[in-house]
Amino acid sequence: MDNNDKSLKSKLMKKYIENGLALMSETEILELILSFSEKKDICSTAENLLDCYRSISNISKIDPKTLLKDKMLSRQGAVLIKLIAVMSRVYNMDKDNISKTDSVETAMNFLKNCYIGISGEKISIIALEKDFTIKDYCFV
What we know:
Blueprint: H1 3-19, H2 26-34, H3 42-53, H4 56-61, H5 64-69, H6 75-96, H7 104-114, E1 124-128, E2 134-139
Antiparallel strand pairs: 1-2
């Protein structure tokens, strides 16, 4: 990472620590993420990714192999972006702590959280007790 990128990383980290994501543009957020994985030209890499995929959300849905094949990111960067999406899904599932599906809305929220960060097709199987308590679930 050259001095310009180190300076950018310091500036973005300071902005994030002081204000959170609320005052950061999508480009700045992506640049901060990339500063932990890319060794050079963070600004251009972020711009190219956003030009190509239009949003961080869309980038996180791309298979890392595609990003590597297109030489958009380093291996570390492709994995990091995918990990952030997966961590978001796990966090949202734990945060809501849904253990009983007493309505269609509750079931929809449970399933919605299961699919955050998923880029391929998945089938969810949910085992329910007679009282609609979630006994187990899995993805196929």
